[in-house]
Design brief:
5 strands, globular, 84 residues, 3 helices, Ubiquitin-like (UB roll)
Length: 84
């Protein structure tokens, strides 16, 4: 089973896709570890490290970067949004 990863707003534009499926890398247990592993893919993914106030969700619930992840989870990364 794979992780479904969603990218929103300027992250989607920088990375070049709105979603992808990836196998959960060995030893990756948190959102922070996943983010760091994705960022290591290259310059397009580096935006995950440089985005200010990066937000994330696991299975459609807001989560901190220390949140645990598991095979089959849906992960979403997005910048903060404001309403008005």
């Amino acid at each position: 089973m794979a992780l479904k990863i969603l990218y929103f707003a300027n992250l989607r534009e920088a990375i070049g896709t709105g979603s992808e499926s990836v196998d959960l890398p060995a030893g990756v247990e948190t959102l922070a570890q996943l983010r760091d592993g994705l960022a290591a893919r290259g310059e397009h993914y580096a935006v995950l490290l440089t985005a200010k106030n990066l937000r994330a969700a696991v299975n459609q619930k807001m989560a901190g970067m220390d949140a645990a992840i598991a095979d089959g989870d849906e992960i979403a990364f997005f910048p903060p949004v404001t309403g008005g």
